[in-house]
Amino acid sequence: MGTSKTTLELGNFSDEARCARRDFALLEKAFNQQVGEILEQAQSRLSESDRDFQRAAEEHARQEQALRDGNAELQRQIDDYCLVNRQLEDRLCGGAFKVGRVMNFLNRHNARVSGNWSRLKALLEKFKDGSLAHDAWITQIQINAADESDADPGVYEFEVESDDEESKVPEAPKPQITLKISTVDLTQPSSTESTPAKNQRKLFGGSKPKVLTDLQLRPSIYTPSMTDTLDPTANKQLSVTKARESLTQPVIWDKLRADIEELMRSHMSYDEALAAARADAEIHPHLDARHLVSMLVRIIYWKSLDKTPWVKYIPCWCYKEAEFKLAKVLTSGEVPTRWPNLRKDI
Questions:
Q1: Are residues 250 and 300 in the same domain?
Q2: Domain limits at 332?
Q3: How confident is residue 177, by pLDDT bands cut at 50, 70 and 90?
Q4: What is the C-alpha separation between 262 and 272, in angstroms, rounded?
Q5: Whether pTM exceeds 0.90
Q6: What is the pLDDT of residues 272-287, one digit of tens each?
Q7: Helices 316-331 and 196-205, interaxial angle, to 10°?
Q8: DSSP reduced 3-state for 34
Q9: Residues 45 and 16 in one domain
Q10: Helix (H, G, I), strand (E, B) or coil at 152
Q11: Whole-number Cα distances in Å, 278 to 178, 189, 308
């Protein structure tokens, strides 16, 4: 009887052990599956952050190149203006005194130049060129005025020549005007934690700054596009002046919302830009990334993400860049410019 009881107990223990092993195997499988899913999600987020950071770095490189191209174009214009200015100065200096015209004047209206008049003309040519007469020249000019036979003004006294005094002062070299471009290298690691690139890298893959915790950072419906923003090196935007001149409607340029201004700079009419800003469609391919990020800073701060339909298509890296800039603005105590709603009656 005792043996049977012991055998029964051993059988029960064996069943419990099998159940425990089975439960453990199931728990281990579920745990490993959950860990795998977490690692996969983490890897996906890391890949997304790296991809967004790479796109931001590429956009920064394009922006830098566009600024350098603009700087080179402005420098070329400055050089052209300096050349034209020198040419005009030369023409002014040369055109203010014409020897032939002076000789003609001296031979009109009862005035005559007789004798060795070619010496007088040669002296005038030397004066025009700013050079002295030859040392071998010995010249005396006698002026006869028949209507003033008794006039005796005495020996000629030299007048003050202010132009000569100015010419003695060496001309200062014209300064070369260059635009200094300050850029952040997003592709190289930084040596300190406080550098902008390091902080921006943390923002692309890390937690949000405390100043952003109470803000909505994405639209309620967010379907980011893979289409890039406007490439500033390949697409020439209109200047603000040109875009303003294209306005035919009774509106004030400075009162327009920033997205409409930038769309008009991308060669849209006012009506086309207004329709695009209202539409539930992508417009960021027409917008320069630098201006787009500045707009996002204002839109996020003024809680207008769900009131501006086109922002739901903006690439994720633009939002992360906007978060970085907005955090800096708020930390410094500043407030972004208000983002107005579009009126329905226009």
A1: yes
A2: 209-345
A3: very low
A4: 12
A5: no
A6: 999 999 999 999 999 9
A7: 120
A8: helix
A9: yes
A10: coil
A11: 40, 41, 7
